[in-house]
Structures are given as structure tokens and as C-alpha cells.
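Sample entry copied in:
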Amino acid sequence: MRSFLPQVFSLKIARYSLFGLMSFASLMPENSSAQSQSVAVPHTATTENDLIRQFEASLAPHFLANAPGATVLVSRQGKVIFRRAYGLANIETKAPMQVDLPLRIGSNTKQFTAVALMQLVDAGKLKLTDTVQQHLPAYPDQGKKITLQHLLTHTAGVRNYDDTPAYREMHGKENSVQEVLDYFKNAAPDFEPGERHSYSNTGYVLLGAIIEKITSMPLAAYMQTKIFQPLQMQHTSLIKPQLSQEKTVFGYRMQRENVVLGRPINDSLVYSAGAITSTVDDMALWDKALSEGALLSAKSWQAIFKNYPLNSGQMTYWGFGWQHGKVQGRPMYYHGGSVNGFVSHTLRMPQDGIYVVILSNRDYHDVRPSLHAERLAAIAIGQPYPDHKAIKLPSDVLDKYVGTYQKVDDVANSTYIVRRDKDQVYLETKGRSNQLIPVSDTEFWLEGRSFRVRFESNANQVNLMRVSQSGLETELLRLAK
């Protein structure tokens, strides 16, 4: 039926953090707080039509009518001020994307898993200091005291299951929760609980299993009755909805120069880490619930958005299912999602009442949902970002930046390598590499990410790489050759 698309037999689940390809959480500075108090910034756009024109100008060039598209929503103080669909939901039939169609949200699922768990904390059935073994006795502790808080903040040291040798055995199967746990439960921990931050889907799978154990309900049923229904999120589900061809959004990826169907998704595997399907309208209802403090006690909402430290005191800039950042110096919380054929991004600016959600059915880098979301938020607060254009730099300029860099107080002693390949430079860590795109002689952005790099020199010698990730800056020193 879809002869123009290759048939795919294997499953590969993408990491769901927008920075899944590289782990940059340890780069966050210790003295930048996304919770700082500040005076509200006046909106410079004089009318709602002015805003809409600016939003359209920012988005339209990036979502073509004949390509996989996106749905986008922006609200301010709970009122929707922008709601659009772009591109196609189905390339074969040329069915246009519609703003009310449900799409995969990937790791934005973790927000819901965190709230489900905190409901049980409010009910006195769990404590954040509880260990995994208290509720899953068969799960080996390997001498580590892993708490629910460790799992929620990605500081447990539990290895990401898609990094384990057993991962490929799960391809193409429908697994029970226990079977998924059995696949990765014997993997050696990456570090002592609380010692580092390392994004882990495994931690949120464990949280889902604990919720099921405590409630004696499938997680999908629990979320439906305790979260989605109370908030009237009628088009949101942890189980992929059975939709007609006309209502189904197909996910796509790039294969060399061709757009092809995304690889199959095993819902039983992505589970509480990334299986939710939703619409931008339902996600706006979700943000409204967060803003009004619904579903949870005030104490639990504070816990969700708190900035948690490592054992060393270094801040992680993570809450429960949310990262901390800034837009034009203004506090925000955000999270990204990526699951075969789909990407998403959600962004909240509570002090300004701004919410942005982008859901897309193409998972290749040029979607850049984090950049688009932050640009829309900046427009909404009346401080749009300047439009930087990519430029070409000669090899001798690029060569000045090649080297190894490290944050001085990085407890993991992670190194970040800048290397050149012909007329391009790449930022590499842990064997993963992303292209750096020059926008000036000294400034670069990371392809497809909300991530800027600026190189600084002392006495004509490059000695510093200054990194800005979603508004938070840190410095990395160049190591001696």
C-alpha cells in the first residue's frame, strides 16, 4: 500500500529528552536559578494580531505544506492566543495536519507519570524517600539505596535500558511490565544514587511499575480515571488510540535524503517514559491544571518544580518531569520528547502566564521544536530573539576551536570534544556527535537544539567555551594538549 516507503522490521526507541543524543545536564551552572523572582516584563506587541503575525513569521518557513508537519499552541494567562496546524498528517494520502489531531508526545509523558506518583504521595501511600525495593522487592538493589526522588530527577544511576545488551531482545514484542523490568534489572548501575544526573527512561519505567503496584491498576487506566478524565482531556491516552485512517497521524524520519515512515513503536516498552498521545488543546488543559494547582496539594506542586541538588550540592536544574531554564532572562520550565517519527516540546513561564506546546510528526533535526518554542515564548513576552543566519567559516578559524573542554566542577569529569571534519565542526561527548553551526566568527548553535556555544580567547589563544542551554550559561575550560 505504501510502496514509496521502506518496510521496517526492527524497533529503535529514541531517547526522549530533547538532548537525548548528548547529555548536557551537567553543564548547568550552579548559581543560575530558574526560580528567581523578577518583575513582569511588559508585552510590546500592541494587539493580538501583531502577535499572530510574529508567530506565523517565525514558524511558517519551517513547516512546508507538502511535508510532515506540526500542531502548535500558545496561551497567555490561560487564554489561547495562537493555534495552528502545519504540513501533512499523512504523506501518502496528502491528508493535511489538523490542529485537533492526536500526536505522540514522547518524553513529555514523564510529566504525567510524575503527577500520578505525587497523587499517591498526597494520599499517604508513598514517600519520596521510599526505596525501589520497598515496593518492588524482586528488583535487585545491588547495594544501592535508590529512592523515588532519585528516579524522578534522573539521579538514580539506573542505566538507560536502551543502552543495555538486552535491549534488542525487546524489539517487536508486546511486553508485560514485569518482562520489561526483567530485561534491564541486572544492568550494573552507572553511579551511586545522587552522585550525578543522567537522563534515564528506565527510572520512569520503574515509577510506572510502582504506581501499578500501589494502585492495583494498569497505569493507562489510572491516568485515564485520575488525570485525563478529571481534566476533560478527551483526546489523551497512554494507550495508542484506535483511530480511523483520516484521524491517524503518521510519524516520519529521514533516511538519507528521503522522508520515510518512522520505525514501529512498542507502547509496552516506552510505557510510563514516553507512550502518551495527545493534542495541543488537551495539553493546554494540562497547563491550566498546573497553573491552578489542580490534582495535587500545593506542597506536591512545589516539589515537582523544585530544583534538586546532587549529593555534592551541585544543582541539577531538574524537577520531576521538568527542566529549568530561561527565555530572555525570564524563568521557564520545559521538556522535550522524541519517539520514533515524532518530536514534541512544552514550555511554561509561570511568572508571565505563557505556555507553548509543539507536537510534530517528523523526528529529524530540522524541526528544532525547542528553538521554535523558545522563540514563540520570547515573542509572547515582547522580547523576540534576533534572527541569526548560518555562515561559513574558513578552516583556519574552525581549527582554533578544535580541542577538549571540561567544566571545572563536573563531578563526572566529562569531556567535550570539538573536532573538525572538512568545513564543519562537531561537538562530541560519550561517542555521540552533533554539528555546530557558525553564526559568527566565535558563536555557534547546536544543530536542531536550543543550545549556543561561544568561544573566548586570551592572548590570541582559545581557552574557554561558554555554553548556553535554554537560557542558562556555564563555562568549560580548554584542556592542555
Remarks:
- The two ends are 57 Å apart (CA to CA).
